[in-house]
Amino acid sequence: MTAHTAIGLFGGTFDPVHFGHLRAASEAKEKLGLNDFRLLPVGEPAHRDLTHASAEHRLAMLRLAVAEHPDIAVDNREVRRSGVSYMVDTLAEVRREAGTETAILLILGQDAAHGLCGWHRWQELFDYAHLVVMTRPDSPASFPAQLESFVTTRRRNAMADLWQSPAGLLLNLEVTQLAISSTAIRMRIAQKRSPRFLLPDRLLGYIDSHQLYGQLHSQLSSQIDK
Ligand code: ATP
Ligand code: MG
């Protein structure tokens, strides 16, 4: 069955969201030609260490980051749902809402794709969605053997090929390489070094007033809008 419309879901912990995410999101939306593009913050993650800021704070920061960019939506379903979030359940839910003729694109960075085989019922992700894997600095281009053998016959070269079906295929996507990570931002804050220009200014105000990740050093704190 060919697909007629498409939904892009860019999942992550966004702890906090930064320009690496936002630039990649913007380019993915544009290159994939998506009208429906959503950032999807994980509620309670199952497959990685605990998050640092609460789900509500991570969601609030995402909303602030895209407040003036209404073409990028924030999907809060995992934050609303209690308990551990599994992407496979989320995709099943989006599939029920979207019907059978809409393509669903699960968008993630190369490093996240590397860990995919550790995700709950990971092979079923392809029953509900295509996978779009974006380049990320310092992340190897090749996949682990188990993932590679599963996706070999699913690889396609262009978005045009993904319209062949609503789910089940894989596309690699090059995006501008920004070597920014939430971990590095959290470390900078904890060490009282400035994280400015790695994420939107208005997030600095939010982080400062809620004392997330540590305390901003006083010079920066006095400069920012809150
Ligand atoms: P952390 O250091 O806490 O893991 P992170 O910067 O990796 O944070 P995540 O919330 O883990 O951010 O990432 C969400 C998604 O965004 C993942 O699929 C990840 O691969 C992708 N991503 C994160 N940063 C970048 C970047 N700089 N360029 C491209 N993709 C990115
Ligand atoms: Mg990460």
Walk me through the structure.
- The chain is built from 11 helices and 9 strands.
- The protein has 226 residues and is of the alpha/beta class.
- It has 2 domains: 4-174, 3-Layer(aba) Sandwich (Rossmann fold); 182-220, no CATH class.
- The strands form 2 sheets. It has a 7-stranded parallel sheet with strand order 4-2-1-6-7-9-8, sandwiched between helices. A two-stranded parallel sheet has the order 3-5.
- Helix 8 (159-162) links the parallel strand 8 and strand 9 (170-173).
- It is globular.
- Bound molecules: adenosine-5'-triphosphate (ATP) and magnesium ion.
- Adenosine-5'-triphosphate binds next to helix 1, strand 6, helix 5 and helix 9.
- Residues 12-15, 20-21, 24, 108-109, 111-112, 134, 136, 175, 178, 180-183 line the site of adenosine-5'-triphosphate (ATP).
Global structural class:
alpha/beta
Which parts are unreliable, with pLDDT below 50 for 5 consecutive residues or more? none
Main beta sheet strand tally, sense and closure: 7 strands, parallel
The CATH homologous superfamily of the largest domain is called: HUPs
Work out the strand percent.
Answer: 15-25%
Average pLDDT score: 94
Number of helix segments?
Answer: 11
At CATH level 2, the architecture of the largest domain is: 3-Layer(aba) Sandwich
Helix-strand sequence? EHEEHEHEHEHHEHEHEHHH
Ligands present? adenosine-5'-triphosphate, magnesium ion
